[in-house]
């Protein structure tokens, strides 16, 4: 039976139930975003936390998704890779539900990532200051440099797969935005299984060498260079006005001496100097991915300091995946049950969807990198004193219902009460 969820339909994974939400722009329709390989539905758990259910098209359903889930989970603590945290609904663990709804075979439950894709920024010709451009470029470069140091590559870097959390309270107002990569199913790592069909990159971002598919540690060097150059140049109105459509370059212009390339090179040179400009030119004129500059060279050119991170190799990658089907129809279809999912971080259990360590690291990383960027642009540290003071009032780890939010009774109130009681006692004693 074809899988067509409706608003408020319930999906139970482990001990947690998920409800399909309504699309914000289409009343009466579930929140679903259709892509080339999958449809991603927004679901909400009992704690009102949002998650993403990724349902693949038949061509992209594969046992490899389940096989690589445990391995990918260990990379979710790295900046930008929280989407590696996933629960897979497989035919092995969920034979009845997959039999009833084959569309759910190898579907994936992941964090729901708020934000704007770089593709949307380009399509909307979204205004950006120079500080915005540098802040986003630094965040993105940090993600790429750390991945490179760990021998990891996305293998299909492009505008739609780059999410900027530009409006969240967890992001700053000056362009130092949280960066997240999505569509990680074909990610390269030495301990991941090679896909049957190699990724061939996306239009407007792929090197000539990638036409027949590529899966290696160097896979992101060209597309990453194109994105970095585009981001750095986006604060210039000429670049925004010249964008082709969903991406800056027309597909036929890649690695050609065209007008858009010349304008971008000129803007990069005028606003950021020769080091990053020369790296972009080197990538653009390269005959192979190996000839493209490493991201460590980009960090030197932009003077970006990369924090040291470690992959957690001790933590169990994933807890049990959903296992059995029980119960009858729930508003038109059945519930998935079984397994054990820690939906509440207060339990102290390992949450395969929203790990504490990944969030904690990224908040610290964000604050550290904000200062670096502002210094490069000529801001003094004291200029941020008021911003830091105000930001300290917000604790992203406390919900509005947290016990830490209970109003405390002023100590003066108790002093007043006790003093009154003592006075009353003395008055009574004096009357005798």
Description:
A hairpin with a 2-residue loop joins strand 1 (10-13) and strand 2 (16-20). This protein folds into two domains: 1-112 and 313-354, no CATH class; 115-311, Transferase(Phosphotransferase) domain 1 (Transferase(Phosphotransferase), domain 1), CATH 1.10.510.10. Helix 5 (221-233) crosses helix 7 (259-272) and helix 7 packs antiparallel against helix 8. The longest helix is centred in the C-terminal third of the chain and has 21 residues, at 356-376. With 432 residues, the protein is α+β, with helices and mostly antiparallel strands. The protein has twelve helices and 14 strands. The chain has helices spanning 63-73, 95-100, 118-123, 130-149, 221-233, 237-242, 259-272, 274-284, 295-301, 356-376, 385-391, 411-431, and strands at residues 10-13, 16-20, 22-23, 26-30, 32-34, 38-45, 50-56, 87-89, 107-111, 116-117, 162-165, 178-181, 324-330, 333-337. Strands 1, 2, 5, 6, 7, 8 and 9 form a seven-stranded antiparallel beta sheet that branches. Strands 10-11-12 form a three-stranded antiparallel beta sheet. It has a two-stranded antiparallel sheet with strand order 3-4. The chain starts with 9 loop residues before the first strand and ends with a helix.
Low-confidence stretches: 168-177, 314-369, 371-375, 379-413
Q: What is the tally of helical segments?
A: 12
Task: Supply Rg.
Answer: 26 Å
CATH hierarchy class name of the largest domain: Mainly Alpha
Helix content: 25-40%
Structural class: alpha+beta
Distance between the termini: 90 Å
For the residues shown, what is the average pLDDT? 76
Outline type: globular
Strand count, sense and barrel status of the largest sheet are:
7 strands, antiparallel
CATH superfamily of the largest domain: Transferase(Phosphotransferase) domain 1
CATH architecture title of the largest domain: Orthogonal Bundle
Strand content: 5-15%
How many distinct beta strands? 14
